[in-house]
TrEMBL record:
This is Uncharacterized protein. It comes from Melastoma candidum. It comes from the Eukaryota. The lineage of its organism: Eukaryota, Viridiplantae, Streptophyta, Embryophyta, Tracheophyta.
Length: 201
């Protein structure tokens, strides 16, 4: 044990530089995506224990607003205007007259591929015509592990995932997921750095 301690102690500057380099890279990556720090952070409990519910909790009051919605019979024009006004990339699509029963999701990509690229008018096209319907929709529940959610999003090339617990309870984006992962890794690096400096008990 003393040998390990001496080895770590003798390499502490090298390890400290490596850790600080990772933290600097993290801050650089975060600033490129338009955020440097999250106003509310996911508690440090290890990636294997972080769930979608933890990420939703960090969204605070934005949680319900994060899944702004439209209905299948709304025009694409109104849906895209809603996205632009709220600076979001997708809307949950609800069934008319059925609050919180999801019909699908409509994204900026749907608009570009199915309206603009095909020369259609957004004012005369209904959301139900271009959305990803509930049968093909990828969803998660609030107890889904964050790494599993990230894997689903990566495998299916999607950036937004509705959170369904019998009914819609929120929406997480790839930015939310990446932020949570980076914060957890940063916490691990910080604890390792404290251990190296002898401040970890």
């Amino acid at each position: 044990m003393q040998g390990i301690t001496r080895a770590i102690w003798s390499c502490r500057d090298t390890l400290r530089n490596a850790i600080m380099g990772q933290i600097t890279k993290r801050d650089s990556i975060l600033s490129r995506f338009g955020f440097v720090s999250s106003p509310s952070r996911v508690p440090h409990k290890g990636l294997e224990n972080v769930t979608v519910a933890d990420v939703l909790m960090t969204k605070g009051d934005e949680r319900t607003g994060s899944w702004l919605w439209c209905q299948t019979d709304d025009t694409v024009y109104d849906a895209v205007k809603n996205m632009a006004e709220n600076n979001i990339g997708s809307l949950v699509v609800l069934k008319p007259g059925e609050p919180q029963l999801i019909a699908g999701i409509v994204t900026e990509r749907d608009y570009l591929k199915k309206v603009i690229a095909q020369g259609r008018s957004s004012k005369y096209t209904r959301v139900g015509e271009i959305m990803t319907d509930e049968g093909r929709l990828i969803t998660v529940s609030s107890d889904t592990n964050i790494l599993h959610a990230m894997q689903l999003m990566t495998d299916h090339h999607i950036r937004h995932v509705p959170v369904i617990d019998g009914k819609i309870v929120g929406m997480v984006s790839i930015v939310d997921v990446v932020r949570a992962v980076v914060e957890q890794q940063s916490g691990e690096l910080s604890r390792l750095n404290d251990f190296i400096r002898g401040e970890y008990y």
